[in-house]
Amino acid sequence: xxxxxxxxxxxxxxxxxxxxxxxxxxxxxxxxxxxxxxxxxxxxxxxxxxxxxxxxxxxxxxxxxxxxxxxxxxxxxxxxxxxxxxxxxxxxxxxxxxxxxxxxxxxxxxxxxxxxxxxxxxxxxxxxxxxxxxxxxxxxxxxxxxxxxxxxxxxxxxxxxxxxxxxxxxxxxxxxxxxxxxxxxxxxxxxxxxxxxxxxxxxxxxxxxxxxxxxxxxxxxxxxxxxxxxxxxxxxxxxxxxxxxxxxxxxxxxxxxxxxxxxxxxxxxxxxxxxxxxxxxxxxxxxxxxxxxxxxxxxxxxxxxxxxxxxxxxxxxxxxxxxxxxxxxxxxxxxxxxxxxxxxxxxxxxxxxxxxxxxxxxxxxxxxxxxxxxxxxxxxxxxxxxxxxxxxxxxxxxxxxxxxxxxxxxxxxxxxxxxxxxxxxxxxxxxxxxxxxxxxxxxxxxxxxxxxxxxxxxxxxxxxxxxxxxxxxxxxxxxxxxxxxxxxxxxxxxxxxxxxxxxxxxxxxxxxxxxxxxxxxxxxxxxxxxxxxxxxxxxxxxxxxxxxxxxxxxxxxxxxxxxxxxxxxxxxxxxxxxxxxxxxxxxxxxxxxxxxxxxxxxxxxxxxxxxxxxxxxxxxxxxxxxxxxxxxxxxxxxxxxxxxxxxxxxxxxxxxxxxxxxxxxxxxxxxxxxxxxxxxxxxxxxxxxxxxxxxxxxxxxxxxxxxxxxxxxxxxxxxxxxxxxxxxxxxxxxxxxxxxxxxxxxxxxxxxxxxxxxxxxxxxxxxxxxxxxxxxxxxxxxxxxxxxxxxxxxxxxxxxxxxxxxxxxxxxxxxxxxxxxxxxxxxxxxxxxxxxxxxxxxxxxxxxxxxxx
Amino acid sequence: xxxxxxxxxxxxxxxxxxxxxxxxxxxxxxxxxxxxxxxxxxxxxxxxxxxxxxxxxxxxxxxxxxxxxxxxxxxxxxxxxx
Lengths: 853, 82
Known about the structure:
The structure holds two protein chains of two kinds. By secondary structure, chain A is an alpha+beta fold.
């Protein structure tokens, strides 16, 4: 299964939480070529591994975490990883993308992806490294917020953590990786339903480059272009994504009062400009990103992460909150509780509209009145009182109150913070996005219609389907490669001199050209992946992937990866019972003009959708045609396509059935989660002590069976191992890599513990039958012990208990049998002896010591 | 009087977010602002879009677009996010 292509680790880990087993998941090389990685590869795996019709919160759901070849390569903004699974909000597919460090570390541990199945029987922490997977007891962490958990994790490992919202199965619960979030589609709830609180990954595998020199050159050029571009070099670094508040407001695309309007008179008070001028400390970024759109702000006496545009829109104009600082607080609270700010904010806005209509009088907040918001957020995350209703998301909540029209969603997932009646192609994107109301998965046409340097008329339906498809496929391919989509904003260069300015005649001409782009892009669905066999400078991804991996990736084959991934996700949705009816928008957006002066300021979805299907080469029911399936070499999907051709509603009952029983499933899982929370609350300290002891025991077991060696290629010459060695068995000097002198080494393992996990240069090797110390124990002969405590002081692993005037006691479970105690016990007393471990029957009573690794 | 709003790095370059100008067309308005703010304005405005009451002038009559008293003009550098 290992691939010959460079850039990949070549392995995918497949973990079964119920059986507590793991294996390597076989992926044919062709699949890597066809899907690259990321969400596209994850969709392909889910197609094989998820049984249609299952509940997303049942043990049968499968989570697939994937990286792409560019992840960790040093290509700009390529630190991304993805989580795909069955969506808790939509019943279709979810792919959630994140710039946190987990993907990088997963790859360093030697895996391109991680599959998680089943449900653990108790709260669990998956610990992943090059040697494989360990299933750790996470009972002491259950019920804690994200930060409280993160503080207990070792440094320099990649991690995934859920907060209380994930445990309590909030349908839009998120997963955190550092400060970055896998937000959408309830992936946090899925992790919670699996009793999985934490995943950590560490390792030090190095990436292989097919042509490192050419790759470096292409990356250098790419980074230079990004730094120069006005969006990636100025707007995003200086103002972050929140810089779009005033721009969306100016272009009628800022959702206001639950998507009733596209602008708000107080937008300037919550803008990225205010954040940048008043509160910004510095901009921040994911690993290897030259853009650095993240915000570090000073607020409330501390430095903290600033909110993204989506959060500001959802918690600002859409609920008519004028206080930016409150948004900072809620943004942080959502991270601690582990919730997606988009779905959450939209659900709250829908609830406010219900209240406005007199349908939800108990809601403690209202448009323009968010005094009680903090408490409400806690209540949602813990599913308390009215929070339990909002935890279901806008669609379910609004249906329950008899007003489904107030939920601003597609397929069950809430829209991001763009009002599509100011950019109608963006609306088409929301309706066709595979994961539900998503701007990115929808192709982000607002960029071409309102925000970017060149604009096509935002209200015309002309060419929007073809442009949306081009963008959707491109973004899909970029995500599959492991890259962030932000570098693609440099796809439209800053206006060259001959155009003079975006408000001049040149811009108008370009806008007209874009309006005609369907003449070129209209045949996309039938274009062969082998066509466009060249690189273009505006999409540098292809050259970087090619030089990194050795795969032949050109413009045509790259966008074909995107098309294949998108089609795979579409087929997944259709197989789960979604139909063309679900490619929909709320009536507010399709039937009611946003502006009185523009009757056309509504999304002409009915006009665009048939064209969209045709350009994609789908039939009138939105089912990919067989020739498309053949073109994309997806023969395995043919039976499903044939069944849908015969009856487009063939699988619809699966989704209706799922929705009918989903609450019962959720309540059952929730009951167990709450029981675990009570148990943890009652005995957290003893659970933590037990956890630490268990870690120390496992560590001792490994050390007894191992020998230690420093791997030269990985050694960073920091000397930490030499300083930790109690017997000077490690040769090291500044600028020289460390060497373990085996004849002096007592195999206590301290060097291994001291070597930082991101170097991982001290490696364990099996000691072999003769040198294995598993069967050896050391014992203090009571009558010889002079109670001096020197053994206690010198024990490198803290396995000896001693107090003044007391006999020393060795804890068998923690003793690594290095013999240091025997060596340091003065020869005249010789109070310590080695003996066969089996001869000892005394259980250990020494309290737990130690921690990581 | 035309109310002018300048966004993100244009506002930063000229040191003002808002202005009030008498002008009959977008062309006049841009010249007046150029006179008022000088080189920093000229350097930034080249990449900016111009909106009159929420509509991009590229879809109206470009710099020839007529203005009426009370109109709101926004000068907006290109932007994106996600």
